[in-house]
Design a protein that fits this description.
By secondary structure, the protein is of the alpha/beta class. The protein has two domains: 216 residues, Aminopeptidase (3-Layer(aba) Sandwich); 110 residues, no CATH class. It has nine helices and 17 strands. Helix 2 packs across helix 7. The longest helix has 16 residues.
Length: 338
Amino acid sequence: MLNEIETLPEGLLGARVEDLHDLLGGPTLIHVPGRLPEPLFVSVLLHGNEDAGFLAVQALLRAYRSRDLPRALSLFIGNVSAACAGQRRLDGQPDYNRIWPGTMCPALPEARMMQRLVECLRARRAFASIDVHNNTGINPHYACINRIDNRFLHLAALFSRTVVYFIRPLGVQAMAMSEVCPALTIECGKPGQEYGVEHARDFLEACLHLHEIPSHPVPSHDVDLYHTVATVKIPEQVSFGFGTGNVDLRLVEGIDHLNFRELPAHTVLGWVRAGAALRLDVSDEHGRDVYDRYFRIERETLLSNCAFMPSMFTLDERIIRQDCLGYLMERLLPEAGR
């Protein structure tokens, strides 16, 4: 299922994301040579509606059309069939950022493809790995790491002072690649925002110019480090909406404006239909149910039960059903790095 090629396909640098399925035929790994042989690995379009990464790489490669890259680049263009439809994933497809080594679904053909891809990058001695994403809610640009490691923190700080550490969900690209080299996920705001493309392009070019990644501690004033402590999902049988509507759960209108804001205990997050036996699906990074720690319902009002900071809360109902409502975070100190 994986196309692997050593040259840029004709027309790639001018293609729209909607054209990629016809142009490439499927998920494709492209190796582009550079002056330093150990490649920077970049994955884009693991979610088909998140185009900042592909557009950033297009702009970067156009700028180097007549000269060598500072370092080799291995580019993985992921879910091109979903990209053609402008969707995160198609019905019946797995999430392309939940099927990398460590996934809960290792028998899937797509998971075996990702295993092969990681082995390829290990053999090529990848220098660093960057997985580029957009998101659907209101969030700052930030980097995610899956190891508290000084090299990972230095690489993350090159993109943003806002850094999030997480170990759930499983099967994500950066977690798999962290077994090979320093690895990041970067979140570049909503699709369609030019600054997200520019920020990703500039960061990837900076990574291509790196000769090494420092291993000394990152000063605490250089990063704001957060730890994702829980994932919040709405059970399949619970109907929901925002602000108004005859549903089981009415979340506050504009709930995504709460992202990356420290919320005190007793913050109102929504309202529950009278008589509805409702309980959100809230699990910590070890898969344990932690609903009672973070939420409670009082007089048909959904409240925070303690202080926390949300991230990636979204108003996109399809994304909520396919993935989750969002995540809960707490602050960490970068001195925890090693």
